[in-house]
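Question (not urgent): is this output format expected?
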Amino acid sequence: MRAPSAFVLLGLAALAGCGGEGAGSASGSGGAGGSTSEAPPLPWAAEKVPAAREPADNPTTQPKVDLGRLLFYDPILSSDRAVACATCHSEEWGMSDGLPLSIGTLGVGPTGPGRTGPNLTRRNSLTLWNVANRSPLFWDGRAATLEDQVLAPLKEPKELGRDPDEVAKDLGAIPGYVTLFQAAFPKDSPAVTVTNMQRALAAFERSLISDRAPYDHYVAGDSGALSDDAVKGMFLFAEAGCAGCHAPPLFESMRFFDRGVAPVPGVADDGRGEVTHERLDQGAFRVPTLRNVRESGPYFHTGAVASLEDAVKQEAARSPKPLSDDDITAIVTFLDKGLIDPSRSPDRPAQVPSGLPVPLDGFRIPR
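Got this back:
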């Protein structure tokens, strides 16, 4: 038993939600269960990451995933033929882009810090890890499914900026894509359609599963998978109420809250309120996943907080339990070391059927 006995006792209490502060709406259960009697000790019920959810009209197949991967990295989807989905959701940057706000079309430089350009998005790029189990989508929850989500960046002038019908027309003129679409959707004629493009991209994104972190091995019975400091941080994470919103095993929830983050200067953004038009949703944003969180900074919907430690400090200030610097360090250790698993990162193709250059990524030092 690696957890100190004092922390084991913390698992007896129900977990408070999000430090008890902030306006928001709950569109799903965000709470965590009570303690478990199984070893190794946990402050909540032991659960595995659930299987990826998929709609009945778009069951996942390998040909769809393969096609979706190529579309994801192909800049033919953008108006400047230089930006791809991977520009804002790169495997090198935690399926995000390492920037406070994403830079879409007409950007200069590879993905990551240092990229510049005139077209900044309003919000930080959310990671795509475990997006298969996420609904609604986006910081404001405006899309119900991954298939719906695909169209938003296409239609947004600052992101990809293309008419979906025109994209499908271009794809249908490329023999390599025609063959791939026919393999992925053999019953459809024509196979190259906007709907099938949406389905293929969604199928690929559903393959971005993170469920092999040290935490997952610990839950499965390997008491040595987490260090003593990480276990301490996990129990403090529970005691501070963090798991009320960042609920295990996905460490997120389908909830929206105002976390008191200052808006981007000159940018009007009412968050969830723009979708629901409810007063309590004004300024509320989705609870993001903490899986692979050390790779997906900067943090919050504005990307205003650069380090994971500072993000934890900002949230700790809203917790009903006072946390010392050592407590915060322990929580950061749990998030940083315990929830990291990029083992299913996609392989970036060397080339795509359009023949356009695959967008570049900046160098990231392994940690």
